[in-house]
Design goal:
With 998 residues, the protein is mainly alpha-helical. It has 43 helices and 14 strands. The N and C termini lie far apart (69 Å).
Amino acid sequence: MLTGLGVALVSACGPAAGRAAGGAAAKLAAAPIAGVAARWKNRKTRRALAEVTYDALCPHLTPESAKQIAELLETPDFQAIALSIATQVYANAGAKNERKELDSTLERLRQLVALHVPDEDLTAEITQAVWNALFEKTTSQVETVKSADTFSPESRASMLKIASCHAAADAKSAEQLATLSSLTAYHDFEVQLADQIKNLHSTMRLPHAGTTRKVPYSKLFVEPKLRSATKKNESHNAHVRDLGEVIAIHHRVVILGDPGGGKSTLSLKLAYDIARSSFPASPARIPLLFVLRDYVEAFRASKDSMVTFLESICRNPYNVEPPEGGIEYLLSSGRALVIFDGLDELTDTSLRRKVSEFVESFVYRYPSAPVLVTSRRVGYSEAPLDESLFAAVTLAELSDSQVATYAEKWFALDQTVERKRRSELAAAFVRESQFVADLRKNPLMLSLMCGIYATEHYIPSNRPDLYQKCAQLLFERWDKQRGIVIPLPFNAHVRQALNALALRMYSDPKAQKGLTRARLVSFMTEFLVEKRFDDEAIAEDAANQFVDFCTGRAWVLTDMGSDTQQNLYAFTHRTFLEYFAATQLVRKHYTPEKLFDVLHGRISAQEWEVVAQLSLQILSQNVDDGGDDFLELALSAIQDTDSLSQKINLASFAARSLGFMVPRPQIIKNICEQAVSLSLDSISDSTFNFEAIALLMECSPENLEMVSKNLKEALRASVVSLPQDDKALLTALFFNEIASYTTAYANPLPSGSAEVWGGVKNDLRRELAPLISRHYGSAFWAARLGAVSGNVSMDALIEKFGTSQLWAFQNSYWAAAIPPFVFHASFREGVSFIDSSDFFGISASADCVKALAELLPAAPRPWVSEAELSYNLLSPILRACDGPVSGKPGPLKEGSILMFLPIAELLISRPGIIRHHQGTKVAAATRTDGKMRRVVIKWARARMHPEERPSAIATLRGLNFSPDVSDFITRWINGDIDTARAANVSSEPKQPPEDASI
């Protein structure tokens, strides 16, 4: 029972508690809602907010106590507690001991308050007041999230686990805090570490050749955009956000990108911004950058904990000794954002899976710590992070305006060009590089192209040429211009040595983080003795000259820092490592047969993807028909492979190659045929893999005509050869939609390609649409298209397939191609969710919905179960289809409203939802304003609350439905009948007879 002081404190702490609760709810919902703006606070704003809270507390506490509490309420520690409460309240809604589950969280707050308030007598009362304010605000926010719940079953299961982890972490944190007399040592450590991180990462290395100069980020860095999963045919700008927006609404994020896309630079820039308190989107005060490739051996040995790793990072490279328990405190309090950089750089798939599990286990141990992971897009699916824990976004390609901005900055920093010519040169580069616009969209490629253009006014047209030109330029021409004596002829032996070194390093994950000078000299000496010198001493001297040449020079190989003993040497970018490794592979295995033997296993496992692509391109340049022969071997290997996933990986590699090479027409035809065949093989009741077809659609402009022609023919032929297989026809008619559905992280198609593929789709539909009628009696999707076009009666459709498929969104192979029937019943005015061109005419769709007014009340119940209509979709459907019920006439209105009864029934039946709707905000709002969503929710609530039934039935009468429909809905409102079956109900809905026919 709170005293008068406690009540006053609750009121004074309310605004701060509301901000913390809003931020927690935003993270919980992964959407910019309710209080997400509270995250966007810089130090000045935090101080101002703390002062407001201080002024409210001062009349009730001593100035010192008021100051301490006001500051506490604006800390990441307090926001972490809010997130813990929000997660546990959401996950445990309806549980008998829901409040008791939060005991460890309350104890954590109590210990935290005790460390901030000098007056021990006030600790208990202040803790209870702060807790009451925070719990009330957080619970209210969580109920808002629940009302718009979009969590998948997997996400809800994960949240239950995370909630228990929050409780366990709170208990551990409370134990740690109880042993402390002050947080000063931890906060001092935090300040020292932030200063060191800020100092070390305050600049970025110029990509300009021949210099190790560094500049502030503002001089060169162009803020990238991040794109959420979108279909290929959507706008290039669809769902594009800044990093700050993504971090603000997602507690854990994985950023996917292409090689050279800027993932690591973005990580370093983020670390710098957080360390200098210039990243208000996150409450974290410390970035902990964990470069995964540096710990390969430790991961293999599984010998250290994450805390041990992070403590070692504090010592090296930041030279700060962490106090005992310091890292533990930063992680458990949410004060540290952990960046796992380079998941893709663990080239062994099994090791990547092991590290993915390590990262996930870290999340469960420290659920309050925000986490960011970077990885390449290609190959990520072989060892992905749990999507219920991590939101995945992709680095968007540079836009034309970003390219121009970067070029302007790049040339402005090029000291080899006269200052007055720099802007002119940048503009000329942007204009002349338009013909390779696809290459310059990548930040690394763009920087290399700028370098080549600055010296030679030449722009390579493909990646291998670009890498080769850079290597030659950087070694031969750039340094010669400066009078630097080159110790060894590059083309004679050093180039070969680099190739061999790259392959050695790439094949050894431990070596990828760098080689010591001793190991590098030893390797070079061994190579030169074998290839050039017969005297080991002379060879070693030449090797030392070479290493001296690399030291301090931003060449393809340079010194990248040091370990505890000596400098480490590595390639300046992973892409150079991959290029030289690929070159060595082709030199050693110079025939298509030998090269494929080496790469076959890697391609099948979707490993070494970039090296394999580059090897294929180099082979194509060096050997007549070499690339074509390699692809033929890959296609032949598909026949000898048992695993369907490996078959698809081989076909996908071949399809991806059409983005950078132009093989013989017969090979393109074979690739298209394999892509279609394997895509059909991958279709089961609810899963499919159309990656190969999707990659074919991304082919180069040079291949577009041939690929579109052959893919169209392969799709057509599959329908002819499999006349009874509805999946073949579905694929041919909807290949574009299904491919887009399964490749959400791919870049949108250029407008020219999209137009061509639109033409292919239209051609196939004109020819094959009449065949849909073959499958009216065996495939729901076909019968459904027949119904909305007036060729199949709804009576026959329901007799054959039952009612549940009318609501199916997922768990069906056709769901990716065809939106659910319920959208035909939408009440939303002026918005159509169904494109008539995708449905071969929907002239009879209104008649279909009208027929449901008579058919559904007479159909076996329940009509649908949560198996077809997942809970996370319920609220979005109601919101998307909401509109005035009066907007439709007679039977159309009746059939439409009946479609939404089971959705409202399932939504209201969930634990926790009833309690929310008993709150004053909803229960008092008996007015529906004639909107469908409010109407059906009101009726569904009345099923659970008899006292609300008179009002619900009065609303029903006001809609003037026919007597039969009114009687049916009245019985439903009274709870006499059910239209839906929740997942926890064991009774099965009645099935239609097997011999029912259309």
